[in-house]
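Q: What structure does this chain adopt?
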Amino acid sequence: MRSMVMRFGRGAAVLAAFCVAVGLATTAGAATLKATVDLSEQRMHVYVGGKKKYTWVVSTGKRGWRTKPGFYTPFAQREKFYSKKWRMSLPYLTWIGSDGTAIHGTYRTSKLGRPASHGCIRLSISNAAKFYRLVQSHGFWSTQVEVKP
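A:
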């Protein structure tokens, strides 16, 4: 939680703690929007209503900054976000982990397809915008993100 405060500010950390404390995570059967991130393939598969709709190239955590496998439920979004810590813009940001892990767009598209982030899941700007809008339309509690090794 402390790393999230340093990364994204106290508001996001408080919201994450609230979500964890109240236990508002979805179950696999309840999600109408599901994203599966395959760390070995560096791909994100997006399912809407159980049917695969998109497959996107991603960039996940590089050595020393591994993206943690597991199940996540989004809990906050920011269309435009600038990280002072990383000194970079993180457009179409969707927070998924209480440690600060998020899915967001990147202008460094040449690094997509290989591990290059500090633990977040990077997408092209256009794909991050699509995912951002999908999460908005389905809602946080009907969205599940699975990160596979």
